[in-house]
Amino acid sequence: MPESSNGTASRPAAVRPAMGRIDAVVHLSFAVLMVASGVRYVLRHSLADNLWTVALAGAVCVLYAVVAVLAKRRQPWLLWMVALVLAWAVLVIAAPSFAWCSFALFFLSRAAFMGWMAYLAGGLTAIATAIGLFRLSGDTDVAMLLGPIAAAVLLTLIYDRIEHDATVQHQLHADISQAQERLAAGERAAGIAAERERVSREIHDTVTQGLASSLLLLEAAQRSWPEEGAKAEVQKAGTLLRQNLADTRSLVHELSAPGLENGPLPQALEQAARRYLDSVVLHVTGDPRPVPTEVRHALIRVAQSAAANIKLHARAEKASLTLGFLPGAVTLDVFDDGRGFDPAAVPPPSEKGGYGLRAMRQRVEQLSGVFSVESSPGEGTVIAAQLPLPPTEPNQANPAPAVPVEKDSP
Asked: How far is 109 from 269, CA to CA, in rounded Å?
């Protein structure tokens, strides 16, 4: 614990409220004991013959009050405390009746000084009290001599322990505050990184995929222009661009999957896939039931991104979605009979693309799901996602049909 240049204690601010309550008790005890000791002394001694002793007792009271006020106002009090200890030593040796006030003076000394000065002030108080009591016993009772010294040693050990515990507690509080600040900073950084990752996935699954598909359609129209099919390709590219504009506006306003977050999940999945694939087959197995919003959103994005990959890379003739409802999970399998690829040889994401599979995997795994890709060159591709569902209430109504549904493209 630090010590100021004037010898007074500089204690942690957190300890001062508790010390303030203790100081109030000490001051009150000193006043009561001083009055009682003064009355006892006056009743047992001639006031005319011991007037200087009473005057010294009054001076001690004044010094004590000055020190108490200065301590309360956090003003320098070193010289006043030295004068108090010296005056008290003379008083208690001359008039042992005031020895009981030594306890209050001891605690005041420990509050005023730190280090060797605190031990010196407390030791001087104890020794003066011991001498006064020993004189009171006629210089015959050794217990009167050793008792105050032993009590002072005991009180010193207890006071040191209290101050040590208070210092440790203050340091722990400071360490906890710093750790909380570091944790909050780490959480903010993690939140920023997670939000950046989320926005990048949203942009990839909506704007990037849509723009790439629109580009393919416009390139196909350019190659076949001015044949009849070129106009249809341009119209479809325009439709995709309008959908991408809606997706972009939705992302800016913190919305998700515009137009797909309402209605039955199978229809939303089919609609998401048909943005990129003209012909797709949808199968539903198990007993359809409502799924949490975050699970629904992840399934829609997986279907959308997988369909875009089929459009851009697979050169497939057939594609299908299979939505399965299990007792504790929901599954989505996206199959195409395209040219396939080696999943182990997929290049890392770059400016040219490669974010699709990684974004799908992250979406699924962030919801404690399982994502897998099965493919080989010339054998087509199956993208599978399985997401856990909360337990279904026994009396929960099932708004969706319980029979398998299969929908074929027109």
From this structure: 81
* Contacts of 401 by beta carbon, 8 Å cutoff, 6+ apart: 288
Angle subtended at Cα 377 by Cα 208 and Cα 362, rounded to the nearest 5 degrees: 40
pTM here? Answer: 0.43
Q: Which two tokens stand for residue 199?
A: 């926005």
CA distances to 106, 109, 116, 288 from 28, rounded to whole Å, are 14, 16, 27, 78
What are the tens digits of pLDDT across the range 231-289? 676 767 777 776 766 666 555 544 444 455 667 999 999 988 888 888 899 999 999 99
Quick one: 290 exposed, middle or buried, by C-beta within 10 A (0-12, 13-18, 19+)? Answer: middle
State the Cα–Cα distance between residues 32 and 131, nearest whole angstrom.
Answer: 23
Query: How many CB atoms lie under 10 A from the CB of residue 73?
Result: 8
Amino acid at 263: G
Report yes or no: 298 and 363 within 8 Å, Cβ to Cβ.
yes
User: By CB neighbour count within 10 A (0-12 exposed, 13-18 middle, 19+ buried), where does 223 fall?
Assistant: exposed
Structure tokens at 204: 């990839």
**Helix ranges, 139-253 (H):** 142-203, 209-224, 228-252
- Strands laid side by side in the 370-375 sheet: 370-375, 381-388, 329-336, 319-325, 281-285, 405-407
Give residue-wise pLDDT tens across range 50-76. 788 888 888 888 888 888 787 777 666
